[in-house]
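Dear colleague,

Thank you for sharing your sequence with our group. We've completed the structure prediction you requested, and as agreed, I am returning the results in plain text so they can be pasted directly into your records. Please verify that the sequence below matches your submission; if there's any discrepancy, let me know and we will rerun it promptly.
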Amino acid sequence: MIGQKINANRFSHRSNYSQSKFKKQLPLHMMMLIPVILVIIYCYGPMLGILISFQDYVPSTKGFFYSLINGKWIGLDMFKYIFKMPDFPSIVWNTFFIATMKIVAKIIFPLIFALLLNEVKRSWFKKSVQTITFLPYFLSWVILGGILLEIFSPRTGIVNQIIGCFGMEAKYFFGDPKTFPYMLVLTDLWKDIGFNTIILLAALTSIDPTLYEAAAIDGAGRLKQTLHITLPGISSIVVLIAILGLGNIMNAGFDQIFVLYGPSVYSTGDIIDTYTYRMGINNGQFSLATAVGLFKSVVSFVMLTISYWIANKYSDYRIF
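Please find the predicted structure tokens below.
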């Protein structure tokens, strides 16, 4: 009997403590209510449109939900159709090729730039270079696209004027299918190199300076210090950036390509996102565009899961 009374008192004490704790935390839970509702409405609500990819969707004047409910169900026929389209393999290839080049370029060049910048002793010069290279990151592709098209214009662009001084013919780099993917990588690198450099510079500051002092006493020069201390010291960050980049392998940059491309470079510059936009918005083929977009989302989810697993295994990086 005494034991039962003690257990009852403990249970009552825990229950009162939990209720008191819940009352104290209730305002915090209420503060989360509005963001959760907004996420459900604007992030999960639009996912209802996935059903369009399994229907022969025809929009009507009675609204989206009426059209969705009364749409003819066709199952996986639309997915079978997109895999048989002659231009679909090239669109997938363009997406992988451009995204992969961007991931590689945005690791190698910022790493070299950060190592060189780390050797600069004059702080005012170092900060000035960081600021100048970081500025394009804050500009949208709409603004940068206009600037780049003017710079590389075959008639009035400064690049072609310089080329003309050497007796060479003017070239429209954004209108040539051969050069267009590389121009995308180059301009994307120019925009983001400042941001990625700052991340790597922050990683460089975490290296113990006594390691450099010990290496200098042993007679190691700057090159050997870089190879044996600096690069191993930031290797985990570089590996982490590379692995997480795999999650964006299907995101080749819709904003950039949509602003810079045209029909003449569709063969090498048209990616899944731009193709989905053209089919859905321009041509009104909503079921086809949704099926292509869903295909991209599924592949991106798989790649993101794999990259997260690799990052967790080799870099001890965890979100959940």
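Summary note from our side: The two ends are 45 Å apart (CA to CA).

Kind regards,
the structure core
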